[in-house]
Structures are given as structure tokens and as C-alpha cells.
Amino acid sequence: xxxxxxxxxxxxxxxxxxxxxxxxxxxxxxxxxxxxxxxxxxxxxxxxxxxxxxxxxxxxxxxxxxxxxxxxxxxxxxxxxxxxxxxxxxxxxxxxxxxxxxxxxxxxxxxxxxxxxxxxxxxxxxxxxxxxxxxxxxxxxxxxxxxxxxxxxxxxxxxxxxxxxxxxxxxxxxxxxxxxxxxxxxxxxxxxxxxxxxxxxxxxxxxxxxxxxxxxxxxxxxxxxxxxxxxxxxxxxxxxxxxxxxxxxxxxxxxxxxxxxxxxxxxxxxxxxxxxxxxxxxxxxxxxxxxxxxxxxxxxxxxxxxxxxxxxxxxxxxxxxxxxxxxxxxxxxxxxxxxxxxxxxxxxxxxxxxxxxxxxxxxxxxxxxxxxxxxxxxxxxxxxxxxxxxxxxx
Length: 394
Hints:
This protein is of the alpha+beta class. 49% of the residues lie in helices and 24% in strands. The protein folds into 3 domains: 2-63, no CATH class; 172-242; 250-392, Histidine kinase-like ATPase, C-terminal domain (Heat Shock Protein 90), CATH 3.30.565.10. The chain has helices at residues 2-20, 38-67, 89-94, 103-109, 111-119, 163-204, 211-242, 254-272, 290-307, 361-371; strands at 71-78, 81-87, 125-132, 138-150, 153-162, 250-253, 274-278, 285-288, 314-323, 326-333, 375-381, 384-392. Strands 2-1-5-4-3 form a 5-stranded antiparallel β-sheet. It has a 5-stranded mixed β-sheet with strand order 7-9-10-12-11. A hairpin with a 2-residue loop joins strand 9 and strand 10 (326-333). Helix 4 (103-109) packs across helix 5, helix 6 (163-204) runs antiparallel to helix 7 (211-242) and helix 9 runs antiparallel to helix 10 (361-371). The longest helix is centred in the middle third of the chain and has 42 residues, at 163-204.
């Protein structure tokens, strides 16, 4: 009996010790006393399975992080020191830093990064900093950090992305979107023209042409001419964007600039029954190309008119304010607004939701404002669609 009890406690002890030490290499399923400890061994196998799943997930997550072209470090706090829980391959290779285990070792390698994090006491940061990489010229990086506590474990995440990489990503994305739109527009014209051309080619090969065939030919030629005209207009629109002349700046009062634009648009406001609420009181001097700026206002106000088509009480609001050496002009309407899924496409060349639209109004306006050293922004607020023009004021 003594040896039986001793053996029983020994099995319990070995199993519990394996669990506590996170060691699941043993296989108790083949133990001669397995049937006497079914629940214990079921617990062991369950924890063993969970451990395998955890390891698998950890490997997948690390593999994903190692493929990301952003420098990533995850710190884990142990008592009063930070250990490096994870450093992805991109960070290690890009900054020529070995995968060290302690924060103090990383500080010896990248002092400029570590010092700014320590200055902020390992709290959330979003800033830019310059780092010299491999004795080359210094490069500017975007630094973002976050801190979180999970199951009483304190983690600090550091993300470093090269400004150049960020710009290149945005440029590639913009070019990709632009090429989709251009390809779609070109195919919309080229495909029917090619189809009609093939049809005409077959008709002219006939020995005789009937009156019905002649009518088909006339219709085909008319359609081809229409699509060719559309294609020509599309190319002309692209030329306007690509060859936007530099602004011929002159001194002009803000209210005079607004009045010139309203003079052109007022007949359309009256026709559509639109109330214009103009609350501009400031009258700063602006250094601007009056013709180009009028085109911007006309484009934005035309968009307002379109957005108000199905609205009963149609209103357009225009206001302005001066902050420091900048003038902010706001144009809003109480129309149907812009759907969230297309908000990031509204400044894309040739993108439009209007059947009769060319899709260059907002792009052209944005380019004009930027050529003046300002910016054009869009926002949705208080059930109003709002465009903000920012111009530098001397």
C-alpha cells in the first residue's frame, strides 16, 4: 500500500511539475496507470494543446511583423526595467542593430531614439526625428509609440517609418488609383469604337449595301464620332491638370474676389432657388491669381448646387476668418453630403459621381490652391458638407 500511494503521488507530482514548468514533452497517454488518472491527464493534454496553439499563433504574428516594412519594437516591463519582447527584422536590418534583449543595450546602439522615448517617460508619442543610418546622411522618420497593459503585463510599442517610405507609399497609391480611373475612361470609349469599326469593316466587304446596312453605318459613324469627342474632352481635361500655369499673383481684396465669383453664379442660385448666407466680415488683402481663384470658387459652388438638387430648403454658407498670417475661407451646403466610402477619392483626377461631370473640378481646385502655397480640405460636420480654403496672408 505504501508503495502504491507513493507511486500515485509521484505521478501527480511529475504531472503538476511539468505543467508549472511549461514543459509538455512527456506523453502520459502510454502510462500503465493512465486509466486511474484520466482527468489529470486530460488537463495535461488540454494545456499541452493550448501551448501548441499559442506557439503557432506567436510564430504567425512574428512572421507577419517581420514582413512589414516598418521598424517595430515591443518592450515588456520586468520590475523596473524594460526588456525587448520583440524586434522585427526590418528594424534590425535597417538600423544595423542586433536583436538585443535589454533596453540599455539598444540605447548604446540608437541613443537618439531611446533618449526621446525616455524624455517622454515611455508614454504615447507621435513625432518625427532624424537618425543617422550606417554612417550615411541622416534620415527623417515618423515615430509613433503606444503603451498598454495586458493581464498585468506592461507593454510599450515603438513604430518607426521612413518619411521617404511614407511618401512613396502615398505616391504609389495615388498613381494606382489614377491609372484605374484613366484605364476605365479610355476603355469606355475605345471598346465601342473598336466594335463599331469591326462592324463597319464587315459591311464594306459586302458586294452590295442595303438601305438597312447604310443606316447601320450612319449610326455607327455617329456613335464613333460621339465617343471620339468624349475621348478628346477627356484628354483635354488631363492636359489642363498637367499643364496648370503658375499663378500670376496680384493684390486683391478678399471680398472683391468673392463678389466677382458670386456675380457669375448668382443667376444659377436664383434659378435653383438657393439661399446664400454670406457672413464674411473681414476684407484682407490677398496675394493671388484672381482668375484662378475665381475658378476655384466657381468649382466649389457648382458642387454645392449639385449636392442641393434633392433638398427642399437649399442653403449655401460662406464664411472666413484670419488666424496669424493665414486666411481660412469656408464654403458649406446643407445637401446630401459625400458618402464615407468615397471621401478619400474626391480629389482624385477624373473621379466623379455626376453623369455630366468630368471629374477634374476638385482636383484642379486643389492644385490651384496648393500652387498658391495653401491647401484645400474637406470635412463633414453638423449635417453640412464643408470645404475649407487656406491661403497665406501677408
